[in-house]
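Hey L., structure's done. Input below.
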Amino acid sequence: MNSSLPPKGMRDFMPQDKSLREYVLSTIRDEYSRNGFTEIETSFIENLDNLTGSDGGENTKLIFKILKRGEKLSASSGEFKEDDLADLGLRFDLTLPLSRFYAENRNDLPQIFKAIQMGSVFRAERPQKGRYRSFVQCDVDVIGDETNLTEIELINTVARTLKRLTLKDFIVKINDRRILKALILASDFTEEEFPDITMTLDKLDKVGRAGIIKELETKGYASVKISKLMSLSDTIGEQGIEAFKSLCPEGYDNVKTILGAIEALCSDYTIAFDYSLVRGMGYYTSTIFEVAHGSLGYSIAGGGRYDEMIEKMCGVSAPACGFSIGYERIVDLLKEMNVSFESGQKVALLYDEEDSLVSVVKASISLREIYPIVSVFKKKKKLGKQLERLKSDGFDFMALYSESIEVKPMA
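Output:
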């Protein structure tokens, strides 16, 4: 094993990659802030009971658990289960930490709290393109507002942020978990079967209709129920959201209100009802949404309402809704698109061995009053090769130290 490599699923970043990542972070943070959200920071580590009891769907199976320490570990003797050896874990998303934070600090926070969270989360899953074991999430959440203003603000904020990042070919998909449940129960599946059915439906974009039928059959569900589910799905395909006007009035009214508002407000991106949209987290209670981009087989943002999570923690009802931008996927997209974000004002100041180092540094300080980035290098014998390397490292201008410094564009 190569000991110089990071652990599988983890990454190091070269300077140019880190620059792109910081540019994306700063753009997201700025647009979130412009829309009235304020930033907090929560712990990377959570109590294991909170993590496993969060109804975080499949992610609760992907928790990085932390072994007990010292006397706690010594006390775990004899027969024990895996969880007997661990009492803490790394967070797998930012929603649970925010809910815990709000439950503890709600008396010192605004009645309607608009939060930004940006930080790393951890999942012990199989690494693949677009999926890592450690990755950054960029969340905006609204706690304390039960009205649809929350969803409208979140969708508009995320859409404006994506547009600032030059991503234009995207569509916001919206659904309501109550609509999904009404569809599944109307197909004669039971309440207990609902979570398992949704996990299968969540794969529709990847496996298609035939794949959904095959997986449900493999799981042992009755063919008559599967056929009814597919038949109702066909009806929805023809009628859209109107198919749920009587089947699920609450979900229908909710989605129609949000769709109407966004369509009236914005003409530069699309929002559409998608009855098959599931979202993997079990804590969502009503509205759910995702952002699809171009021909990608995965979303670049997603979220929804989780109106019951905070109450489970502290016994106080607090409606909540959040939207998370898929930061890592967006960074990868911008890298593939060769998006330029540099200021074009990066200067390399070259000096000779006989030059006074104090004078050279003073000159660099003066140049920084004009140019945002100035780096000092000793001039090499093969100046042409040196300049080529500096240009490949992102330097746009060069200057040779003298009494009268002239800054020139790189050839």
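The CA atoms of residues 102 and 310 lie 8 Å apart. The chain has a mean pLDDT of 90.

-- N.
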